[in-house]
TrEMBL record:
Protein name as it appears in the record: UDP-glucose 6-dehydrogenase
Residues noted as binding NAD(+) in the record, renumbered to the chain: T17, E50, K164, R231
Biological pathway: Nucleotide-sugar biosynthesis; UDP-alpha-D-glucuronate biosynthesis; UDP-alpha-D-glucuronate from UDP-alpha-D-glucose: step 1/1
Residues reported to bind substrate: F47, L48, A49, E50, K105, F150, L151, N152, A153, S154, G158, K224
Organism of origin: Salix viminalis
Transmembrane segments: none
Family: Belongs to the UDP-glucose/GDP-mannose dehydrogenase family.
SUPFAM superfamilies, alphabetized: 6-phosphogluconate dehydrogenase C-terminal domain-like, NAD(P)-binding Rossmann-fold domains, UDP-glucose/GDP-mannose dehydrogenase C-terminal domain
Domain annotation UDP-glucose/GDP-mannose dehydrogenase C-terminal: ranges: 217-341
């Protein structure tokens, strides 16, 4: 379409995260349909994080521009650089070749996800040994070569980019015969899956090895706070794991609508309107899942609470009130390390927090893989 309507030379800027060499494919298509018009293709991947996108735009760590190493390519790079120079300091604008720019975006997300999987792997070891993952993270984060960011243990990473970009990287490695490198990056995703499964196993084993017929309150469904995005959220895997053992879920998230939760858990209305014996295998019975308007309603009559998103409001809930309205023994499974463990234990909760020393109850339960 660009080639068809262009009447003068054009600079085409690729913004999306794409497989390496997408710019080359765009270039070939435009060149073969150019009608004498010259096209320069630039790769300018965005590094905007959900929840802080405007701040990231106005004050970026860096702006990355990749283009051809020809006079025409360098001229195109300079044209885009001049646009950013209106508000971005020159030293933060990095100019590279096309392939470096495309690969850098994938590499950045892979490295961030790798840090999360690394600290989550350590959290399992911390629980086994009695160490505290928060203390370990703080200690290693003080090393200036490592730094403190993305070292918070959790139930796992989510979002639209991390897994997709790592698997993209794996594919590129395999296409280039780098099977060992591909396997290395695959492990980042595998540890993320392991962490979600480990969390579900901990919930089930702690509650007398079954959650069948038990009400579990799910606090948070988005993949991180300050967004309603549920793409690849670990909450999906955790909920499906609990539903697989026939748990009754009461879900609350301040930004995720009920329709989105139902879709993510394969609860399409057209499927739910059918008699149970005609529903697809992955359709969850409507009576197994309820979406509610606040955390207190979600926890009312529940046997346990799973905190799956680090919403600030979950830190300041009246947990005494929640405890009084729950079945006993009452459990809290903190997948984001947001609660005051000792305070909750004093109230009467049995608390599991990822990577934290286990209380006596959990130590007596069977080990989870």
């Amino acid at each position: 379409m660009i080639a068809d309507v262009s009447k003068s030379d054009k600079i085409v800027v690729e913004k999306s995260t794409v497989p390496v060499k997408t710019a080359e494919a765009i270039e070939k298509i435009l060149t073969h349909n150019s009608k004498g018009i010259n096209f320069q293709i630039l790769s300018n991947p965005e590094f905007l994080a959900e929840g802080t996108a405007i701040q990231d735009l106005f004050n970026p760590d860096r702006v990355l521009i990749g283009g051809r190493e020809t006079p025409e390519g360098q001229k195109a790079i300079q044209a885009l650089k001049d646009v950013y120079a209106h508000w971005v300091p020159a030293e933060r604008i990095i100019c590279t070749n096309l392939w470096s720019a495309e690969l850098s975006k994938l590499a950045a997300n892979a490295f961030l996800a790798q840090r999360i999987s690394s600290v989550n792997a350590m959290s399992a070891l911390c629980e086994a040994t009695g160490a505290d993952v928060s203390e370990v993270s703080h200690a290693i984060g003080k090393d200036t070569r490592i730094g403190p960011k993305f070292l918070n243990a959790s139930v796992g990473f989510g979002g639209s980019c991390f897994q997709k970009d790592i698997l993209n990287l794996v594919y590129i490695c395999e296409c280039n015969g780098l099977s060992e490198v591909a396997n290395y990056w695959k492990q980042v995703v595998q540890v993320n899956e392991y962490q979600k499964n480990r969390f579900v196993n901990r919930v089930v084993s702690s509650m007398f090895n079954t959650v069948s017929g038990k009400k579990i309150a799910i606090l948070g469904f988005a993949f991180k706070k300050d967004t309603g995005d549920t793409r690849e959220t670990p909450a999906i895997g955790v909920c499906q794991g609990l539903l697989g053992d026939k748990a009754i879920l009461s879900i609350y998230d301040p930004q995720v609508p009920q329709e989105l939760i139902q879709r993510d858990l394969s609860m399409h209305k057209s499927e739910l309107d059918k008699p149970p014996h005609l529903r697809p295998v992955n359709a969850v019975a409507i009576e197994q899942v309820t979406c509610v308007g606040d955390a207190y309603e979600a926890a009312k009559g529940a046997h346990g609470i799973c905190i799956l998103t680090e919403w600030d409001e979950f830190k300041t809930l009246d947990y005494k009130k929640i405890y009084n309205n729950m079945n006993k023994p009452a459990f809290v499974f903190d997948g984001r390390n947001v609660v005051d463990i000792e305070k909750l234990r004093q109230i009467g909760f049995i608390v599991y927090s990822i990577g934290k020393p286990l209380d006596a109850w959990l130590k007596d339960m069977p080990a989870v893989a």
